[in-house]
Specification:
Layout lengths: L1 E5 L4 H11 L4 E5 L15 H16 L3 E10 L19 H11 L9 E11 L5 E12 L15 E3 L4 E2 L5 H7 L1 H11 L1 H4 L1
Parallel strand pairs: 1-2, 1-3
Antiparallel strand pairs: 3-4, 4-5, 5-6, 6-7
Bound molecules: inosine 5'-triphosphate (ITT) and magnesium ion.
Length: 195
């Protein structure tokens, strides 16, 4: 069994990775399994932030670490909230973030509410060897919260290809089409070489 640490404090992300990687014989640990590590997520791009998270934790723990930096990119808002998705309306408050997004899009018609979710995964070994992969899924921002599953902006994100909100999908359905699922599948194509 391979064990990899995911440098995340987000329980929703951890759940998705665990569901996708456990069947492949990879055990997931997260920051919840270790004493607190201070991470300064101050990069300007998804890749910079994922690298900061992975490097900080790999150096501290001396273990192979992967990190996920992700976000929602809304065309009518010039790409916001983007890399600031977690802190859009304050600190990691999903309800407040969703309320702010709806408010910013007041009066914007459906056809102009195009958006995508993006994930960059960066994995690093304590010796610095790095592996990067990206994924995205396209959709629209809804006019009201729809569905109960997932986390973050999922209840406001309409998945064009499935004609449902992301929060109406089961965990398996989300993993099949999501930014994170696509990034992870791209990542796994090079995982054995990196490991
Ligand atoms: O940095 P870590 O500890 O991994 O956890 P985080 O929640 O801060 O994660 P990010 O810095 O990558 O911020 C991404 C934010 O984008 C949103 N997000 C990312 N993936 C999402 C998904 O699959 N569904 C809904 N919202 C998502 C959600 O608000 C996240 O907090
Ligand atoms: Mg974060």
């Amino acid at each position: 069994m391979k064990t990899i640490v995911i440098a995340t404090k987000n329980a929703g992300k951890a759940r998705e990775y665990r569901k996708m990687l456990t069947p492949q014989g990879i055990e997931i640990k997260t920051l919840a399994d270790f004493p607190p590590i201070n991470i300064n997520e101050n990069g300007k791009t998804f890749e910079e932030n994922a690298t900061i998270k992975a490097m900080t934790v790999a150096k501290q723990l001396q273990l192979p670490v992967m990190a996920d930096d992700s976000g929602l990119v809304v065309d009518a808002l010039d790409g916001a909230p983007g890399v600031y998705s977690a802190r859009y309306a304050g600190d990691h408050d999903d309800a407040a973030n969703n309320a702010k997004l709806l408010q910013k899009l007041t009066g914007v018609p459906s056809e102009q509410r195009t958006a995508h979710f993006h994930t960059t995964i960066v994995a690093v070994k304590p010796n610095g060897t790095k592996l990067v992969a990206d994924g995205r899924v396209d959709g629209h921002i809804l006019h009201q919260l729809t569905g109960e599953n997932g986390f973050g902006y999922d209840p406001l994100f309409y998945v064009d290809e499935l004609q449902k909100s992301m929060a109406e999908l089961t965990a398996d359905q989300k993993n099949q089409i999501s930014h994170r699922g696509k990034a992870l599948r791209a990542f796994m194509r090079n995982f054995n070489d990196w490991w």
